[in-house]
Amino acid sequence: MARGSFELSRRREDGVLLASLLWRPGPGWRAISSAMVGGGIGPVEWVLNAQVPGGYARMDPVDHLREMAPPGPGVGMLTAAAVDRFTRAADGGAEAVATVGLRIPTWAAAPEGVPDPELAPPHRPGTINILVAVPVPVSDAALVNLVMTVTEAKTQALIEEGFGCTGTASDAVCVAVPETGPGGDGPGEPFGGPRSVWGARAARAVHRAVRRGARDWAGRDGTRT
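The structure assignment produced for this chain is given below.
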């Protein structure tokens, strides 16, 4: 990301080489997230998106994430998608980074008892994790609205790439913003919907990043969409 440090690293675990993305935005940021570590709304000094092996079966994912994460408050997400093939996009100052895997695409409102289709074998796992950074402070309500907008943009991208789904069942999202503006002003922007200034910019960035990620996943997997 343009702000702070953004690092791609690799580690070996259970004989598999796995990648992780770590973003450190610097002091004075907060985030909203659906992640297991740092979920909800709170201060954030780092965001970690860590790859795990396909068929991940550890029963202590929170402890596992904390083993890999730096100290201090932050957000930790796990995925079996290829983190080193992350995609990124920016629009007007809003930035998005996505890791995309689509082995089992899912409709949010699927009929009860109907299994999701599997597009690839288990060694091609999939989750969509999205990190968005918006460079202005926003209200709590606008943070919630931004999560809605990011999710809508993700779904639009997937459908436009030919995937019949709203995402996967294990997707996670994190939206980070400064706590205050350059002059120490707050609480910031009141809106984060798709027709607000920053919601629209975040949506376009997410849309481009997810489209590229979905196209890359399909091309590597041989899936035809």
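Interim note for the steering committee: The first strand starts at residue 5 and ends at 13. The radius of gyration is 17 Å.
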